[in-house]
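Hi team,

Below is the intake form for Membrane protein from Streptomyces incarnatus. Please confirm the fields before the structure is written into the shared record.

FORM ID: S-0412
PROTEIN: Membrane protein
ORGANISM: Streptomyces incarnatus
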Amino acid sequence: MRWDPTDPAQRRARYALLSGMWAVFFALFSWPYVSLLLGALALYWGSSALRAKPRTTNPDTPAPPPGAGRPQVTAAVGGLVTASLALVLVASTFTVQFVYRDYYTCVNDALTHEAKQSCDRLLPQELRGVLGAGNS
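The structure came back. Fields below:
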């Protein structure tokens, strides 16, 4: 069975896959609000594509063979997985910024590079190499 662009379930499955992939892309490149929007849309489109009933074109034609009635499942599941990954990345970004709010406020208020480096004392020793001002 081929892809039918007039079938809403298949179209939503493709939208879910594309939206989920772009959500991961935007989450990795620090555009969390766009990623959040695209991830939520991908979850909606993916779940609605999986819940849709297979469309029959003509009631007079015989039923399609089992397993051939839902070609959108792979794309919909891929969209759900990538959207979930993007939402986890965004949630972890927001959590880190919330937990270490003092550090981020200190870095944003620093006027010199030395002042920015002195903000590293607000981070735990293990995270200074990852989040520290020496990495920017």
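SUMMARY LINE: The chain has six helices and no strands.

Thanks, M.
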